[in-house]
Automatic annotation (TrEMBL):
One of its GO terms (molecular function) is DNA binding. It comes from the Bacteria. Residues 1-93 form the HTH hxlR-type domain. It comes from Phaeobacter italicus. This is Putative HTH-type transcriptional regulator YtcD. Keywords: DNA-binding, Transcription, Transcription regulation. The lineage of its organism: Bacteria, Pseudomonadati, Pseudomonadota, Alphaproteobacteria, Rhodobacterales. One of its GO terms (biological process) is regulation of DNA-templated transcription.
Amino acid sequence: MRILGGKWTASILWHLKDGPVRFNELSRMIPGASKKMITERLRQLEAQGLVSRQVLDTAPVSVQYEVTHLGCSALGFLDQLRTWTDSLPGAED
């Protein structure tokens, strides 16, 4: 929970689950989070080995992120947590 419990961390991992995503696209997927906060969380996730960062050879330079093998193991846990919360009383609201 210490790793995944940070605000926006689970959301970032979840949005990266389907493949590489460029930073600006990711920031549009998470409208409530500032770019600064997303950057901080991505750096933490990269340092923990859950996300990989790739600098693309484009003009201007773009960066994309994707979930690592270790990060994929966390996605299973997050999916179980989502299923559990969906089953709680009042979750249909």
